[in-house]
Structure formats: structure tokens, C-alpha cells
């Protein structure tokens, strides 16, 4: 493990910090700034800010310069994630496009797809959704039923997708559909299609989450059109394309997550010193103190694991099961920090601002959102199976 940054890395950190100091107003860093604004208003503010960030050269840090990226190193990307978390910067409006679609198009897209997709994606001109899950095909993705029948130069799409992030703000969706019979294998006959969301026959409906937000939606396709040229990875190769795309999902390091979760832990620890529980400060309760200490230990383990992974990738080593280990560690650590917050506040954590003078929306949203992170991106059970087979050598 190498805990040192190069001079080039530190120069990049200083440069990015200086840019954030000028271009990220202090009021935007505070939860209070977003109160009272609708989902649409919040999204547009984030979209405009991210477009400015891209224009300044601070998006696509590891992307090749030929695609509009910075051509940076894995350590620069880690610094970038860390500094955004420290500044409490707005989260990306195009996470699925940046993390998954962009790298996949660079790897296997046609020249036309690279030209038409990557730059608009990077500059938030096009917001992308991911249409994988269906009501009857969640974790069992190969059970998808949406059909795409070819008629001339178009596919005619009919079906439904669910749990679609950014469905209400998406301009386009990369989605899986059956373009031909399965021919004995459920993974055969699937293609990844790039579909315009702004057309007749595509309807997005919001799904209200436990946090009160509607980041997810469900999308209905009724005789919607997709040109046959808008297939990523070739017709019938959708499963292989999806597996390549998902390989980018778990990432190489969780330094950004660690920074964010450590900030949340500090807020929880400070809360424990202020709240009264059974006639004394919550921080005096030995059980709560143990919970705080245990979650802090988990956080520090996550930090050093992330440094180990970052060292491996910086040396040009490919990640295998380590990606699954990282996903397990950061999502479980997030959950434990959230559980500690709930233990400190008690059942009142479900009610915003139960104590005068304390603003708890950020922590309450964190606690509720953490429930999903051990499921999406490959559930903990799936990740443990990967580690068991590929690291421990256990039979399937």
C-alpha cells in the first residue's frame, strides 16, 4: 500500500480546491439551500453547475483527452471524489452516463456513437437513464420480457422498466430488450438499445421513495421507436454488453464514500453529545458509545482498503473480486453509520427536526437511503458469492 500522492497529484488537488472555492458558493454547500425547492428546481441547479464544471475541465477525470476528459490518473480521480465530498458539492445529475455508459461506448461503441454520445453526456446536454430492471426481472435480469420487434430501419418497443434512476429528467435511456427468440439460452436474443425518452410511446411515472423524493421512476414503452443503428455492442450481444457496462459500476476505490461517511459520522457523534437520553447525554450511554466506536473502526478499515485498491490500480493491475469486496465494505459501512444515527436519536429519526435547533434532514435522508445500497449494484449476497468463488475457491 502506498499512501503518498505525487507532486502532480497534489498540484491537481490544489488546483481543484481553488476552483471549488470560487465556483461553488458556500450557500450551495449547506442543506438549507435546497429546502423549499422542487425536484425540478434542484435538478436544474445541479445540471447547470455540473455543466460549468465540465466546461472548466473537471469532469471525466480519467477519461482520455480525445473524448473530452482530463486524461488523469486513478489517484487524481480519488482526489477529485474526496474534494467533492469535503466541499459537500451537489451530486452528479448524470451518474449512470458518466460511470457506466460513457466508458462502455468508449470501449465498444461505433464511431458515430462515440461522437454523438460522449461529449453531450459529459456536459449534461443529454441526461441518461438505465432501463434494466422490470417488475418481473429485478435481480434475475435474464428474465426480462420487454420486446423490440424490427420493422424496417426501426425497432418497435413494448414493455415496462422499473426502478429507473432519473426517469423523470432523462433525455435518453440505455435499455435491454429481446430483439430475437432466446433459442434455448435466456441470455441469448437480448440487445442493448439507446432510446429517446422524448417521443410518443414513452411514459415515465415517478415512484415516491421512503425519503419523500422521487429519484426513481417507472417507464412504459408502447410502440416506441428505436433506430436499428442505435444498438450498443451489436444486436443479440446485449447480455455481454450489460456485463461490460456493469463491470464499471463497483469502481476501484471508495475514498469518496469514506470521506462522505466520515463527515456523517462526525455529525452523529456531535449529535450524541447534545441529545439527552435517560437523563444524561447520549454520548454517556456505554452501548451507544460502543456503537459509535464500532462504526468508526469500520470506517477506518474502509479507508485503508480503499488505499490498497487505489495502489493496485495505480500500478496498472486489473481488479477482480476486489471490486466486489469494495462494494460490500462501503455499503455495509454506510449502513452501520446510519444504524448508529438511528440508535442515538431513537425512533424520532424518522421525523425531521425533532429537537429545537437541530437540523437533521441530511442524516435522516442518509439513514433511509442507506437501506438500498446493500441491494443495488449487486446485492451483498451476490458479492459474497463472487468473493467465495474467486477468492476462497469455494464451489458454486
Would you give an account of this structure?
This protein is α+β, with helices and mostly antiparallel strands and 396 residues long. It has 3 domains: 7-93, Acyl-CoA dehydrogenase/oxidase, N-terminal domain (Butyryl-Coa Dehydrogenase, subunit A, domain 1), CATH 1.10.540; 128-236, Butyryl-CoA Dehydrogenase, subunit A, domain 2; 255-390, Up-down Bundle (Butyryl-CoA Dehydrogenase, subunit A, domain 3), CATH 1.20.140.10. The chain contains 11 helices and 10 strands. The strands form 3 sheets. A 4-stranded mixed beta sheet has the order 1-4-5-8. A hairpin with a 2-residue loop joins strand 2 and strand 3 (154-165). The radius of gyration is 22 Å and the shape is globular. The two termini are 32 Å apart. The mean pLDDT is 89.
Say which CATH homologous superfamily of the largest domain is assigned. Butyryl-CoA Dehydrogenase, subunit A, domain 3
Class by alpha and beta content: alpha+beta
Number of strands: 10
Strand order of the largest sheet: 1-4-5-8
**Which whole number gives the mean pLDDT?**
89
Predict the CATH topology of the largest domain.
Butyryl-CoA Dehydrogenase, subunit A, domain 3
Question: Main β-sheet, in a few words?
Answer: 4 strands, mixed
Provide the number of structural domains. 3
Give a brief description.
With 396 residues, this protein is an alpha+beta fold. The protein is 46% helix and 15% strand. The chain has three domains: 7-93, Orthogonal Bundle (Butyryl-Coa Dehydrogenase, subunit A, domain 1), CATH 1.10.540.10; 128-236, Butyryl-CoA Dehydrogenase, subunit A, domain 2 (Beta Barrel), CATH 2.40.110.10; 255-390, Butyryl-CoA Dehydrogenase, subunit A, domain 3 (Up-down Bundle), CATH 1.20.140.
